[in-house]
Amino acid sequence: MTPYENIKKLVADYKPSMRWDGNEPLEKWQERARKKLSELLGLDAMIPAEKAVEIEFDREWEEFREIRFRYQSEPGYFVPCHMLIPNGAKLPLATVICMQGHSKGMHITLGRTKYPGEEIAGDRDFAIRAVKEGFIAVALEQRDFGECGGNEKGPQCLDPSLTNLLIGRTTIGERVWDVMRCVDVLLDDFAELAKPDEIYVLGNSGGGTCSIYAGALETRLAGSVPSCAISSFAASIGAMSHCACNYVPNILKYFDMSELIAMNAPRKLVVVSGEKDSIFPIAEARKMVAIGHKAYDAVGASDRIAHVVGGEGHRFYADIAWDALKKMK
Fold first, then answer.
1. Of 140, 135, 137, 217, whose CA–CA distance to 178 is shortest?
2. Would you say 154 and 104 are in contact if contact means Cβ atoms under 8 Å apart?
3. CA 206, 201, 320: angle at the middle one, nearest 5?
4. Number of helical H runs and strand E runs in the chain
5. How confident is the model at residue 150, as a pLDDT?
6. 242-to-72, 106, 186, 285 alpha-carbon distances in Å
7. Which among 157, 129, 122, 115 is positioned nearest to 243, based on CA atoms?
8. Alpha carbon distance 240, 59 (integer Å)
9. Whole-angstrom Cα distance, residue 38 to residue 172?
10. At 323, is the secondary structure helix, strand, or coil?
11. Are the C-beta atoms of 171 and 148 separated by less than 8 Å?
């Protein structure tokens, strides 16, 4: 047995110690679970800063108004965003924060190409579709992607993810922190545009990962749409090569993906999977959703969780995802 085979076997045999068993009131468990998850992600090592919101441009297009802005998430670190507001809509509107996965940047969310040979495929133009669905869309550039550390070759996550570990931080934690600060910006600086009780987060792959974690921790979010990011840890990031940004030290001692789902309850959650997704296997995705579903059942919110499955692989499935979200009350 190789060392890698040995550790994968150990991971496969782990049982999370903080799985909700139904014997404790869900809200009390969620309070404990969020505290532990925040600790594991290193959120206490993040450094608050004044938002210092800067509007870089404000333009009108045929179908939407586009505001390019940035805000300070930690001292000296600014997060670039594009906000698309449907023309002719009555404001304020429901808003969705959209995040690409491992790609060359948020320009794909906006339906734009930036590099030679680049194309928009797999319904990854999240912001464009959100506008068509009547939502305000905020394309947020995640750390180590695109303008925030990537380049024409793609995301550059390895070095910052490993360096984070030296001081008890994680890249997932940084990305969730940025979403939390984006919610602050929407509530404080764009209050006339965004409905405060209808802010959602959506993403595919690495963007889906941030979405499920953010939904677990940020209770001001009305819901989350994580795509091609849900499976058991043992069957996905614990079974094959994944980017270093996916790993959270010690997390499987306490939680699997099912517990992240349970922390989202009773807020809206649409889990999107691909039937042929080879890196987030569908069988374990169904298992995680089934376990997490018990939390929704316990609080009478069974109609606020859905698992939709597209017929292909690791991509977004806009039609079924949006249909499921818009059916929820």
1. 140
2. yes
3. 85
4. 10, 9
5. 76
6. 29, 21, 32, 17
7. 157
8. 44
9. 11
10. helix
11. no
Of the two residues 306 and 154, the one the predictor is more confident about is 306
Place 9 in a pLDDT band, splitting at 50, 70 and 90. Answer: very high
The packing angle between helices 257-264 and 282-298, to 10°, is: 30
Q: What is the pLDDT of residues 105-149, one digit of tens each?
A: 999 999 999 988 888 999 999 999 999 999 999 999 999 999 998
Task: Return the pLDDT at 122.
Answer: 95
Distance CA 3, CA 185 (A): 46
Bridge partners (DSSP) listed for residue 98: 139, 202
DSSP-based helix, strand, coil % in the chain, nearest 5: 35, 20, 40
- Binned at pLDDT 50, 70 and 90, residue 324 comes out as very high
**pTM of the complete model:** 0.97
Q: Is 32 left (phi over 0), alpha (psi -120 to 50) or beta?
A: alpha
Which amino acid appears at position 64 of this protein? F
Say which residue the tokens 């809206």 belong to. Answer: 268
Tokens of 232: 């058991």
Residue 44: what residue type? D
| Strand 77-86, strand 64-74: pairing | antiparallel
Q: 66 near 83, Cβ under 8 Å?
A: yes
Q: What is the pLDDT of residue 151?
A: 79
Determine the Cα–Cα distance for residues 18 and 13; give it in Å rounded to an integer: 16
- Tell me how crowded residue 160 is: count the other CB atoms within 10 A of its CB: 17
User: Model confidence over 143-191: pLDDT tens digits?
Assistant: 999 999 877 778 889 999 999 999 999 999 999 999 999 999 999 999 9
